[in-house]
Amino acid sequence: MKPQSWEDILGELHAAVGRLLVGEHTPYQQLWSRAPDVTMMGAYGGLYTGYDAVCAAIIRAAANYRGWQPDYQEEPIAAFNDGMLGYVILRERVTNMRDATVRCRRVTVLFRREQEQWRIFHHHSDPLHQVA
Q1: pTM over 0.85
Q2: Which CATH number goes with the domain that contains 46?
Q3: HSE value, Cβ hemisphere, 13 Å, CA-based, for 39
Q4: What is the number of structural domains in the chain?
Q5: Is residue 1 part of a domain?
Q6: pLDDT in tens, 92-108
């Protein structure tokens, strides 16, 4: 398998989130490490540990978006990698073009190298409330 670049994984993450926002969970799940120490604290609440629990949470999240016509925008806040570990911090805004529902989140995703591929091992997101 060809080594995966940092730019490639960030592009794959963006594309996978786009698919998640139309109810397709598989592309996002495929980005995750299969190690038992993976964790997720998603925007819908909860703390999930282990690949199976994280996958179940991703499936539930995707189901929440079925039927949406999403306009997805992300604003990178910070990103870093040292070749073995990396992170990205984003501000996300998702608008359902059907009914103008808007969801804004702050997101942190942690990656590590596993067999020449970047894999997510932690995701944390929560609602972003603008302060006036």
Answers
A1: yes
A2: 3.10.450.50
A3: 9
A4: 1
A5: no
A6: 998 888 888 888 999 99
